Amino acid sequence: MAPSSESADEPPQARNPAAPTDTKGILHPDEQAKHRSLLRLPPSPAVDRYIEWYWAVRWDLRGRPPYRAEVLSYPSVNLTFERSETRTGGFVNGVVTTKFIRELSGQGETFGIRFRAGGFGAFTGLDVGSFRDRAVPIGDVLPDAASLTERVFDAPTAERRRLVVENYLADHPVVADPTYHLVLRIVDAMATDQELTRVDQIAERFDVPARTLQRMFRRYVGAGPKWVLRRYRLQDGADLLAKGRTEDLAALAAELGYFDQAHFSREFTTEVGMAPLEYAKNSLRFRNEVTAKVVRTRD
Question: φ, ψ for residue 74 (rounded to 5)?
Fold first, then answer.
């Protein structure tokens, strides 16, 4: 991307891509891994102020039942280039405020670009709230990207596909946006500081009126600050449960900022589709199956 003036005062977190091996947000991660492959690639320094990572999913379930892959999505817009029995093309995927479900069947693949929270809105200048809970053909949003889908699929590897996308992005220099810098700082605090559980705390810490905060988040992120806070805490809870944290759900709920265990259990069950302990047991069962398979293979 052509250099812009937004570097000297850029928040440091915008320079460090998230760990590509992190499975947070992926529900039943061990189970999902049995049905599809997942590869993540970091962005180049030229675009990492807007893009968190590139990702590639492939599956081949021919002769096997379809599988419902479930995700508690991040507050991010994703560009996806998909080729499967049910959908083919390039899409702009807005923030998904409910559990995201994608049925995998037959054979297929997706190459995606996950923008940072607020990144797509800053890069394009568009109101990201208009894409919430929707997938829109890429040409309807970025008219000059109509041929990008074909060029992405013509590239033989994920690394070459990343290069195709970054060459496209390089033709679109972006003007410095101080409001986006502020959004990045706020979202980073929401994601990492579990003591932040209310919008009024955010407003006070960053000296931003609550109504201004709401407008900023709709325009850049695509969902309100209260939802973003809840989603990060819920992702944290699902991740810890999947890793075996079950000994004290009341303590876990308190750590995540919930009023009590009942509040956490209700919200978790509503969003994930099963109670916390049931989810943990299901995750443990598949993790044990994976471990047993690895041991048998080594023997």
Answer: -75, 165
